[in-house]
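Today's session is about reading a structure prediction critically. Students often jump straight to the picture, but the first step is always the sequence itself: look for stretches that repeat, for charged clusters, for runs of hydrophobic residues. Only then move on to the predicted structure, which in these notes is written as discrete structure tokens rather than atom positions. Here is the chain we will use throughout the hour.
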Amino acid sequence: MSRPELPPLTTLLPFEATVRHASMTRAAQELHVTHGAISRQIRNLEKALGAELFERGPRSLRPTPQARRLAAAVRDALDVIETAAREVSGRNRDTGPLALSCEPTLLMRWLIPRLPELAAAHPGLTVHLSAGGGPVAFARDTVDAALRRDDFPVPDGVSRVPLFDEWIGPVCRPETAERLRAGAPVTLLHTATRPAAWADWRRLTGRSPAVAGEQSFEHFYLALQAAVAGVGVAVGPYALVRDDLVRGQLAAPYGFVADGTGYGLLSPRPPERDARTGALLGWLREQAADLTPPAPCRIS
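Below is the predicted structure for this chain, in token form.
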């Protein structure tokens, strides 16, 4: 069947991803291709349609209203195709294991230690875990839900249920905390995944500890482990260090302050429309009740 008005199908996935992210770079990362490949497909689509789909600025890429309408239609078509494919293959996302993506440090330091409690509360729920951060392409990724920090725009059509706020504060070994309170210089620990952590804390509190030295780590998890080992002082979110504080492995000499961000559960449709996601959300809400620092937001 001839469809002369149909644009090249190879251009539609790159186009939809670019509109959703308002970024060719993020679209390229999602589709595992180069920025140049995305750019060529967008140009091919614009040539086929005889219309420009984006307003291009020096550092911005803004979809036109026509582009947003076309992208919504492409997204709807992908949903229809995905549903039909599941029916043909016999796979149904409403049953079977729940694929949950979680930010790596939250996964290692908070979620995994609580899995026995989840299994006891919901013995019929099997959760397959994977580490990941940033936006999730539910239409193409084999992920049913994702735990994410709200440091990126949530795409249209994706459900986000807030779970807990982010509280941050310097954490270190108890003996290091005593030195810090006394005004002694300490080693500050940094991480490439949150390079502005110390600057954010200083801005929020007006405090600035004396610095004896600085050390950087590639991942957030490594910086927190270094704090547990007594290497120095790291800025740690309460959710990620709570267990170490309770065990006495870490202390928080200045307490914690809300940084304006938070974590939420993302899913391709509202949790109440999927029994597995709904059960997980209920359990996560119970666990999140312990993730606000006790008044006066200080543990030491």
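Discussion point for the tutorial: The chain has three domains: 9-89, 98-164+263-288, 167-260.
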